[in-house]
Amino acid sequence: MPELPEVETIARWLREGRATEPPLLGRTITAVEVHWPRTLAAPDPATFAQRLTGQHVTAIGRRGKFLRWVLSGGGVVLLHLRMSGDLRWQPPPAASPQPHDRLVFAFADGWRLAFNDPRKFGRVWLVEDETSVLGDLGPEPLDPDLSAADFYARLQASRARLKPLLLDQRFLAGLGNIYADEALFQAGLHPLRPAHTLSRTEAERLLHAIRQVLRAGIAHHGASIDWVYRGGDFQNHFAVYRRAGQPCLRCGTPIQRQLVGQRSTHFCPHCQV
Questions:
Q1: CB within 10 Å: which end of the chain, N or C, has fewer?
Q2: Which of 63, 65, 163, 243 is the catalytic position?
Q3: Which key words tag this protein in UniProt (predicted)?
Q4: Residue 164 within a domain
């Protein structure tokens, strides 16, 4: 599943375009094709297509793992890619839908943007009030308004173990398996450590590590570790994730893999306490 750096990268590509693809920003939607109705969480397909047709995208951003498109006539499109969702530009001439295209946005010059999702877990919303979908999300880890003192207080209020807590989108928005593992390694903290046992210094170190690995992930356009997300190379800079059995880059101890809350967790048993 794409995490904060991958979703941020996609948002930037949609705003700015890239070598072979146009920007989405400013384009007017001329038609919407819904090929898998359950992709739409709200509203129904007919209403969704009717309301988007003729509108142009005035802003593109991200909240947690959600993509946000602000529309000229009101409303916001929210997209969550989940396990296998992807946005793919299709150049003119217009072709038939590709396998696994669940939703297609068409534009006047013949370009089409497809929401492709083999596993069908991704969801799209058209809402007037974003809090109806995003209201339970925690703070953005890169938000400068999130201070070390605030972060420490949030840790102190929880009896959860660090790894599951960092994956809880109500605690922090945008972190997933990859960057949680990498941040805990950078901070020297064991993934099973109870959150409330961290000192102020450890909490500050963890927040710094989270921001460090997220910024590195964004700088490398995210991590491309399977067929779902392409275009990043942060996978070439992992310290622990998917390195089970390989020597720790700091001490040489073999990296361990353990299931924590049904999620693969990678850590150095010597460096992380």
A1: C
A2: 65
A3: DNA damage, DNA repair, DNA-binding, Glycosidase, Hydrolase, Lyase, Metal-binding, Multifunctional enzyme, Zinc, Zinc-finger
A4: yes
